[in-house]
Every structure is written in C-alpha cells, then in structure tokens.
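Friendly challenge for the regulars: who can give me the structure tokens for this chain first? No prize, just bragging rights.
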Amino acid sequence: MQIPQYRQLYESLRHQIISGIYQQDDLLPSENQLADLHQITRMTVRQALNELVKDGYIRKQKGKGSFVNLRRKTVGLLAFRDPKQLNTNEEVALQSKIIGRPSIQAWDPAFFFPISEAERQAGCIVAMNLHHSQTTPVMFEYYYLPNINLPGFIMTPFVNDSIMESLRVNYHVEASGVEQEVSCVLAKAQEAQFLKVSVGSPLVYVWRRYTTNRMGYYFYSVSFCNTQQYSLSSLIV
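First reply, four minutes later:
Bragging rights claimed.
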C-alpha cells in the first residue's frame, strides 16, 4: 500500500516528537523549510501539520508557526518488569511477532464486549500476536477488528510486525483510550503451545476494547500473559 506523502511527513514528525527530538513548546521548521527538506509541496506540508494538530501533537500560532504540544495519552499499555530488579522501574523490552495471516470471520455470538449491528454485519478481522523477551514468550494476543473501512488489511504487510502501528500508518486509526477487564484462567492447548507452558498453567487474562480517533470505531483484544518470570503492570502513556 502506497503511503501518501503528507502521511509520510506526519509519521516522521510524530516520531521526532514522541522520541524527544522535539521537546514541549519547540518551534517546528516552517512550512517552506519542511517542503524544501522533504521535496514536497507546501500544501502537502500543511496537510501533515493539520493532522498533527488534530491528533494533539502540535499547536499552531498565527504569525509564529507550529509548536510541539505533547499530549497526555490515555491508553494503558501492558508492561512486563523483572521482579529481581528491585531498584529500577524499567519495563522489560519485548519483541513482537505476528502469527500467520489475519482472517475475516463472523463474530462469536458470545463475544466478550457488546458489538453494534454494523460491526456484526461487517464481520471481524482476527489476527494473532506473540510478544517475547529474548527467547521467553510472555504474552499471546488475539486482535478483533471490525471489518469496516480497512481495505486490503489481511493482504497488506504489517508495519514493524505491529497491528497497532499498521492501523495507524496504513489506515490512520489510532487507539485513544481503553476499557479492560482482568482475570485468571488456565492455559488451554493453544495458549500453552505459544507461551511454552503446561496445559492448565495459570495465566493472566486481559480483554480490552479500544476507542480510536475514528468516531464510532472500536477494536478489541484478548491477551494471555505468562507471569512466571516477569511481573505485569499497566502503563498510562
């Protein structure tokens, strides 16, 4: 899928903002400077900047330019920590891997969140994701995406092997909030296989509904977490 030029600039500036290259209240280069730097038109630059304003990353001041406006996100991300490292609050670095290809299915009549009639009629894109630390698998996830305005999703390569990044980069859908429930379950055969635990091992079970920047569009996930080696927490970022 060809990413529009304005979106490429959006992603570049967004990355520089969230990685700290641009700090709170920093002035971004002018539209002319960005156009020259990226060899694109001012109209394309303006479109990218308007998207950054809409998503809360920058603010515009007439006659002065565009300033970084770091927003406080409200998405609680699951994080793993090593309980042996008592003197640090750093999370364990995880790598992600998409398992197989996503498929379009009918919604389970007993789905864990209520869904709308439009979602039910459109069907559900189901994808699986495995997170691991070095060689230790720690979280196995199912994602459930309403098959609404996501053309070609099941055939388009994933961005950085990430479902959320693929939604954001390819379809401009970004999680803005989350509802979740947490419980404990015993591993069945599939979870045990991917997490390399015995069938019947206790797992933390998290099911979530994400709100997004697309009005009325939600997506969902179920996570099975192996906390035998690492502790689990939820970060607000």
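The helical segments are 5-18, 31-38, 42-54, 117-122, 163-171, 189-195. The radius of gyration is 20 Å. Your move, everyone else.
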